[in-house]
Structures are given as C-alpha cells and as structure tokens.
Amino acid sequence: MSLSDRFSLRMLASLWVGLAMAAGGLAVWLWMASDAAWRGHLDRAYVAGLALADSLDNGSGLPEGIRLVQLRDAPALPPGWRQTVITLTGGGRPDLARGARLSLRIQSPDILYPVAEVQSLGGGSQAAGLASVARTMARFCSDPHLFVQQDAGPWLRVEGAAIWGCDAAPPDRRLWAGAAAVAALALLLGWVAEVSGAFAAFARALGDHRARTAALPEGGVEELRQTAQAVNAYVAQDRAALENRALVLSGVSHDLGTPATRLRLRSAMIEDADLRARLERDIDEMTAMIDGVLTYTRAEIGAEPFRDLSLTSLAEAVVADYQDVALPVTLQTAPPRPARAGTLFSRTTSRAAPDAQTMLMRGQPTALRRALSNLIDNALKYGREAVVRVGGDADELWLTVTDRGSVLTGDDMARLTGAFQRGENSGALPGVGLGLAIVSTIAAQHGGRLEFDQAPEGLEARMILSRQWA
C-alpha cells in the first residue's frame, strides 16, 4: 500500500509542502555555506599573494603556508605538463617598466591557467597581479608548481600547497544543494502525478460503459476512496432499483397472465362479435404494454453476458423467422467499408475491413435479436416491407433496416426513440411506444447509437455497434 492510500489529500499535501520547504531550505543553506567558504578560500589566497609580493619587494616575512626555495637553474617543464608564463611590471606594460620585472611560471599537470584573469595585465601593480595569480591557482584544483624571478635574479620556487593546493580547498557542496532541490522537486511532482493519475483513472473508470455493472476501483487518497465508495453505493442502489422494477414487472406480468386468460375465455362467450373483438384488443394491448415495459427494463439492466458472435448469422436467423411466416423481409449484405486510421507517417490510412460473410463482434445475442426484430416490426408496421442490410468496417458494424412507403422523417423517428412515444400515423396499430427506445438502449450498451436517414425507397434506420465494446 502506497503512502497515498493511507492518508487524506489534505494531510499528504501538507506533508509534501513541508518536506519541499525543508528540502528547499537545506539546499539554500548548503549552497550559501559552500559559496561563502569558497569566497573565504579565494580571499585568503589573494591576501597571501599580496603578502608574498611584499616579501619579494621588501624582504618582509612570508605569509603562513608559503615557503620559498631558490633554484640554481631555470625551472624545467616535466614531460606532459603544461606551463603558463606571465610577466608582471609595475607600469602595466612590459615596455613601461617601473621597478623590478617579475616573471612567473605556473606548471600544472592538467591545465593552462587563464591569463586574462590576472588583474595587473593591462594595468595595476605587481602585488595585485601576484595576488590575482594566487587566487586563480586556488580556484582550480590542480596542485601546480609556481616559480618567480625578479629581473635577472635567481628563480625561486614558491611552495604554497597549503594556500592553493587541492587539499586546501573547502568541499564544494553546491552540486549537492542543486541535487537536493531537484530531488525534492522530482518527488513532489511524482506525488502530484500519482494523485492526478489516480483521479484520471477514476474518471476513465466512471466514464466506462461498464461502470453500471462493475464496481469502480476504491484506491488512492482518502477523498478519492470516499468518492469511489459513494459512487459504487449509488450504482449498486440504482442497479438494485432496476432489478426490483424488473422483478415487480415480471411478477405483475405473470400474475396478470391468469386473469387475462380467464378474460379471453369469457370474452369468447360474448355473442356480440364487435364487442368481443374490442375486448380482446384491449386484453392484447394490456399484456403487450406489460411485456414492453418489462423488456425495456431488462434492456436497461443489460445483465446478459457479452460473447463472440457473427452479426451476419444473427441477422440471417432473424430474417428467416419472418420469412417462415411469409412476411416481406429480405436480407442484403452491404459491401465492407475500409476504416480510416492514423499512422506515424500520415494522418490517415485505410485499414482492412472485416469479411462480409463473418462480421464478428462481441455482443449480447438475445438483446441484438430483440433490437433487430423491433426495427423490422416498425418497418413492416409503417411501411410495406423491410430490407435488412449488414455492413461494417474494422471498428464498427451496423444493421440497417429500410422500409418502403413510410411517411415518417428522420426527425420523427429520432423523437420516437423516447419511451412511450408513437408516430402520428400509428392510428389503431398495436404498440405502446417502447420499440425504438429499447433499440436505442441496446445500441448504447454496445457502444453505438441509433440513426435515421431518408433513403430513396423509404426511411432507413441504422443501428451502429462497436465491434469490441466489452
């Protein structure tokens, strides 16, 4: 269990903000302390250079940590070493000599020292120049050898490792300070990403089509867990209400079966044929209404499991049932349409469409049969015949039912997808106005939708389905 799973968002935010401030304060302290130590180290080297220059000019005592050794010959450059040569004059230029000329040789196994940083070149005193040289040597860790010569005098080796040697330099903790600040920032951003990712995952799960049938994950910070628990409780309550409604309607439908049967038997004994027909029509409408509401409620629940199926085979079976009773229903397989998908090198490209003979998908067979039957019934009710077509591409499949002679428009049919809505031309035709509502609900449960279009031969209803919705 992660830290986010144990505490609330408020507590974690306070903790991380406090840790970030502490890490920031530590980083600033390390940086400033290290910077102050380095400034003090370079200042000591500069002062030592000034004292060395005074000792060379006036014979005063050498500063602490520096010792002079007189050489018999000019200093030789060891193999592989680098040498920086500097000449210091009192006038600022070699041709304007004021006092003894001071020649410097800095030998290092690693680097050539930047001559431009010596302040006396271009102006200044020899003391300032020698102090600047000492400061520059103290700045870089190289353990150099410094040699000085006044005019044509002997070469002197200046031993000042205690001033400008690597061991004399203070530890530079500025890199550690920067690393601490970056690490604290990375940890804080990582925690923010974890929390925001948990909320994003919860939002995706909440928007998933299975949110009404599967429990949402109850993880993350306390506020997110409480939200997930509340949503799960609400979904469970809503689903229980739907199931109770279906159970009640199923019981009512069952209980009404016996009285309806008795009414039919008793109506058969009515001699008045017109009265008997009206009574039987009322009984049929009552039972149809109960069955329609029960079917609609079951479609809302969507409890039927998803399985692999062939939409073409399902449509063939449904159409065959209508053809067996000599109803004008025919099946036509629409040519497959290639899907469009983006690639790395182009915005869109064609992908292979599914085989027109298979049209495989994952769906609820019983629900899809009911939806297709409802579309065919509407086409036969408001038109003269029904033409069923099956089509699809790599992502979606669709069932199209076209009638002939219907006067309804696409807007009229879109309105009829609501519960208990009937067309103006329904007249005395049987029905309770739930057929298209059931089809629309089943299409939505398969990641699709119900559309209408005015075809040349009649009104076309198209139920679009996702191939891999569950």
From TrEMBL:
Entry's Gene Ontology molecular function annotations: phosphorelay sensor kinase activity
Residue ranges that the Swiss-Prot or TrEMBL entry lists as coiled coil: none
Transmembrane segments: 12-32
Catalytic reaction equation(s): ATP + protein L-histidine = ADP + protein N-phospho-L-histidine
SMART domains: HATPase_c (SM00387), HisKA (SM00388)
Gene3D superfamilies (alphabetical): 1.10.287.130, Histidine kinase-like ATPase, C-terminal domain
Membrane topology: Multi-pass membrane protein
Residue span(s) of domain Histidine kinase: 251-469
Enzyme class: transferase
Record-listed E.C. numbers: 2.7.13.3
Keyword Cell inner membrane carried by entry: yes
One Pfam entry name: HATPase_c
Alphabetical UniProt keywords: Cell inner membrane, Cell membrane, Kinase, Membrane, Phosphoprotein, Transferase, Transmembrane, Transmembrane helix, Two-component regulatory system
Gene Ontology terms: cellular component: plasma membrane
Record's subcellular location: Cell inner membrane
InterPro entries: 2C_sensor_his_kinase, HATPase_C_sf, HATPase_dom, His_kinase_dom, HisK_dim/P_dom, HisK_dim/P_sf, Sig_transdc_His_kin-like_C
Family annotation (CDD domains): HATPase, HisKA
Protein name per the record: histidine kinase
Lineage: Bacteria, Pseudomonadati, Pseudomonadota, Alphaproteobacteria, Rhodobacterales
